[in-house]
Structures are given as structure tokens and as C-alpha cells.
Amino acid sequence: MRPGDELGPLEVPVTRTLIVAGAVASRDFQDVHHDPEAARAKGSPDVFMNILTTNGLVGRFITDHFGPTAVLRRVAIRLGAPNYPGDTMVLRGTVEEVEGRTAVVRVLGENGRGRHVTGTVTVTVPGDGDERPAGGVV
Asked: CA–CA separation, 134 vs 126, rounded Å?
């Protein structure tokens, strides 16, 4: 892993089920994430993905690339264009910094409306024979 290395892409089909299941799993019971009529009454054309689901998908994107033993140290994201049912979000990333086995990855997720998510993820990748990253934190 070196600065400038590119990750991705990961295409995520955004379904109504993904949106509702993500909201329920993250205990976000705001009606705009599961009730189309309520979402329309509040000015949205349909239900839309919540930030916690997006956060989880960003984490999946990183661990898909770095492997199941990768440890997410910090995830900082900002939402932009919403993800609605029928959209496809494409996640991409670029390694910005590397120190030892820890990297900072710039992440961008876009759909047909524009940028859905931007942010950075700090990830530690254990080496061969390492059961835990430095410091023993998992």
C-alpha cells in the first residue's frame, strides 16, 4: 500500500430493501427512510438512504479491498446527493498517506445525481502473523 494507490470501484445497487433494512438495523426510525408517502410529504421524491447505512457501505468498501483483518481506526464522511431506490452508488478510493501498516484513504461515492459521500478512512492492516494491530485494539 502506497500513496496514490487506487481502490475500487465498488458498485452498490440501491434498493428500497437496502435503504429500509439499513435504517432499521441502525435503529434510525425516521419515516423518510422507510415510508415513501412521509418522505414525499417532507419534500423528497422517495425514501432515501441514511448516513449510518452509507457509513457501513464505506467500511465494507475498505475491508473488501484491504481484507477482513483490516481495522477501521477512523471514518469521517460527509453526505451530498441522496441515494434513492433505483440508484447505483459507485465507491472509489485513493490512498493518501501511509505510516507503517496504517493508511489514510480518501473515499468518494457517486450516483447519477452526483456525489453521495466524500470522506477519509484511516485503516490498519495487520501483517503476516499479526493477530491484532499494534496496540492490541480490534
From this structure: 8
Looking up cell 435503529 gives: 27
CA distance 63 to 49: 21
pLDDT of residue 128: 66
Q: How does strand 6-13 pair with strand 88-99?
A: antiparallel
CA distance 114 to 91: 12
- Residue 85: phi and psi, rounded to 5, are -55, 135
- How far is CA 110 from each of CA 10, 14, 15, 46, 58, rounded to the nearest angstrom? 11, 12, 15, 18, 12
23 three-state secondary structure: helix
Q: Classify burial at 92, counting beta carbons within 10 Å of its beta carbon; exposed 0-12, middle 13-18, buried 19 or more.
A: middle
| pTM, entire model | 0.88
